Predict the 3D structure of the following.
Amino acid sequence: MADIAEQEPQQDRTSQDLARQIRDHANITLSTSHVSGVNDSATARKNIVDTAEGRRAQRSNYGNAPGGAVDLDVDMLTGMLGLAGTYRFRVSEIAGGSHSANSRHYAGVAFDVDQINGRQVNSNNPDYQTFMQIGRTLGATEVLGPGNVGHDTHVHLAWPRRDLSEKDDSKPTCEGGQPIT
């Protein structure tokens, strides 16, 4: 794990340039649908494509999702690329989907992964625990997965919010998940 920092992109650290790298990365698949089945313009793929093209990422507008758009966080995008240096994975949600009311997804600082190295995330996936630990090493401060209520089918990684005045009193959950107690 000592080499993880070296795997982070060193050239451009703007969200637009990082999103281009993610969009084109062979080890990252970006979901084109939501777990809920709702069809909108806030899928993980669309969030990255919009950011790569200089636009804000759309948020869903159903369930707890607030609608509107958000800038994706540079540290979160850098973390996603850092993980791609070691793993192949599918990002199921970024700013879209319905999560807890004050979810970090809506702030553009979180993403969910439902497949690692071609296998569904669950307690039998041999890679999910190390994936979560590397996420922490790369700066994620909210790291949830199998064994956490509502996260048996995916890993949730979130970085600190940029606006520290914005308080998150919600229990963290992901799309289709129950509140974490």
User: Anything to note?
Assistant: The chain has one domain: 4-158. Residues 4-158 form one domain.
